[in-house]
Amino acid sequence: MDERTTNTDVMDRRRFVAGLSALGAVGLAGCGSAGNGDTGGNGGNGGDGTDSDIDQIGSGREGRDAPGGTPIAEMPDLEGELTVYSGRGEFLVGELVEYIESQYDDFSLTVRYGGSTDLVNQIANEGDGSPADVFYSVNAGALGALADEGRTQTLSEEITGMVRGEFRTEEWIGTSGRARTVPYNTDAYSAEDLPSDIMVYPDEFDGTLGWAPSYGSCQAFITAMRILEGDEATREWLNGVVEAGIQAYPDEFAACQAVADGEIDAAFTNHYYIQRVLDGSPEASIDTAFTQGDAGAVFNVAGAAVVDTASDTTLAENFVRHLLSAESQDYFARSTFEYPLIPDVEPVGDLPTIDELDVPDIDLTQLSNLEATVDLMRDVGIEI
Fold this sequence. Notes:
Layout: H1 3-6, E1 9-13, E2 30-31, E3 38-39, E4 80-86, H2 90-102, E5 107-113, H3 116-126, E6 134-137, H4 140-148, H5 157-160, E7 173-185, H6 201-204, E8 209-211, H7 216-229, H8 231-243, E9 247-248, H9 252-260, E10 266-267, E11 269-270, H10 271-280, E12 286-289, E13 299-306, H11 313-322, H12 326-336, E14 339-340, H13 371-379
Parallel strand pairs: 4-5, 4-6, 8-9, 8-10
Antiparallel strand pairs: 1-5, 2-3, 6-13, 7-11, 7-12, 7-13, 7-14
Helix pairs in contact: 3-4, 7-8, 9-10
C-alpha cells in the first residue's frame, strides 16, 4: 500500500446525523489539472449558513418547485454496513452522503476520500480483500478503468434505465454531469452571434477568447476534439486559437469571471462556472451558449459503480440508486450547479434540460487519456 493510500481520508459515518448543517463554502465539481478529482476552487454557494440545502428541497428557494423523480421515501430502505471509495471531494458530497445515511437507523456508511485514479489503483492493489462496496468517481474515465480491470459488477436494468444511454454502461452509471459551453459577455454579443460549431471559432468568431489549458476539463475537451475530428484538424484548431490570441487563465472560473468583467468576449468552459459567477453576482454580464453535437458540446459525468468485492450487492446498488433520488439530483443542481441526470429535475439557471442537449456520440471513458492531448497542445506552443 503506497503513501497516498495510507493517508486516504477515512470518514466513518457510524453516527446518526440528526440534521445537516449549512453547506457553506462549496467548490465546483470539475476536473483539476490532472482531471483526477473534484476541485475547482472559488467555491461557495452563497448560502447564509442557517439551513441545509437538502432540507430546503421543494421550499421554493430560488423559485424552484419540488423536484421530480423518485424521492428517497419511495426507494428501497438501506440496512447494513457499506464502504464507499469516493473520488468526489468531501466538501462537495459529504453532506449529501451524511444525509442519505441519516435517513436509516440501521444503515452504517464509511466513506474513504481520495483521487479517482488513485482509488482505482487502490482497489486493484487490494485485490479480493478490498473493503470497497461502491466506487464513486468524478469522471467516466476512472469508472471505465475500474470496469476494464474486471472490478465492477453488472448493474440491474432497473437502475440503468434511470439515465440516458450516453451516460451509463452496464457496469457504471452517471449520477450528475457537466456540459462544455461557451460563456459569452452579454454586453458585447448575443447568443445568435456565436457559432454553433466549435471548429469554426478560430476563423468566424471576431471577439477575444479565453480558456484554462492546464485544467483537466479543458484537456478532456481537446481530447474529445481529437477523437471526433482527428489529430490534424485539432492541431489546426489549436494553432488557430493561439494565433487569434486566446488568453490563458489558471482555472475555468477565472475565465468566466474575465468574460463577465469584459476582459474577454467568450471562453471555453464547463457550464457550472458560469452559474457560479451568476450566483455571486446575478446581474453579471455573462450567459451560456452551446455548440451542437461536437467536441464543444461534450457532456461528462460523475458516477458510481458497484465493486466486485461488495459484501451486499443489493445494498450497494440501492445506495447508488439513492444518488439518483429526487433529493440527491436537486442537491447537485443547487449546491454544485451540476446537471442532474434525471430529466424530471431541472438544472439551475436558464439552461436546456438534459434531454435538450445535443451531445456528441463519444465514449466518455476515453476522455481521461490526456497524455497525447497534452503533448499536442505543447507542440503548438501552449503552456501547460
